[in-house]
Amino acid sequence: MLNRVSxxxxxxxxxxxxxxxxxxxxxxxxxxxxYWTGEGALCSPACSTAHFKxxxxxxxxxxMPADEPFPKGR
Length: 74
Fold this sequence. Notes:
Structural class: alpha+beta
Oligomer: single chain
Strand order of the largest sheet: 1-2
Strand content: 5-15%
Shape: globular
Number of helices: 1
Largest sheet: 2 strands, antiparallel
Radius of gyration: 12 Å
Helix content: 10-25%
């Protein structure tokens, strides 16, 4: 389950979802974020890579795809 505090912000840098620099799926904000993990949304390929490396370094690698962070219809 996503942390409510970080759900609408980038997990790595804190950029708010909806910011023009937050990468959305298919380039449309209504489609949700393009990058995410089970812990929250990520705003860009750079933050996605940083989060991956951080988890690897902490010994908590991603073992399976995470559920979509903003399910449609909610």
